[in-house]
Amino acid sequence: xxxxxxxxxxxxxxxxxxxxxxxxxxxxxxxxxxxxxxxxxxxxxxxxxxxxxxxxxxxxxxxxxxxxxxxxxxxxxxxxxxxxxxxxxxxxxxxxxxxxxxxxxxxxxxxxxxxxxxxxxxxxxxxxxxxx
Length: 132
What we know:
- By secondary structure, this protein is an alpha+beta fold.
- It has helices spanning about 1-10, 15-25, 65-75; strands at about 30, 40-45, 50-55.
- The protein is built from three helices and three strands.
- Strand 2 (about 40-45) and strand 3 (about 50-55) form a beta hairpin.
- The termini are far apart.
């Protein structure tokens, strides 16, 4: 019963039942990526282009869409990655998830969360002190 209520009322726990019904009636499955996300296409948007949808395998997190599928979702290309014509560019790197808020997040030199001591001020810049 809990799963049914989550699917009926919340979008962040996966797709809702009415969206599943819409996908079943009006779209066709285009493919699936290595993370288990499923991609659909059907209908037309206001510009006459086909509407494209993604159903996330776990949480609704757009950073979980790989580069090839991102280009297809945003109409940068009409060739979806599972087709034979799709070839990733040599400069495309493998997908990495968004690491913000995790211990593996990027922390630049001088960040308050970075370990170690911040570098001292050098050059012609003097740090402001409230008493001066």
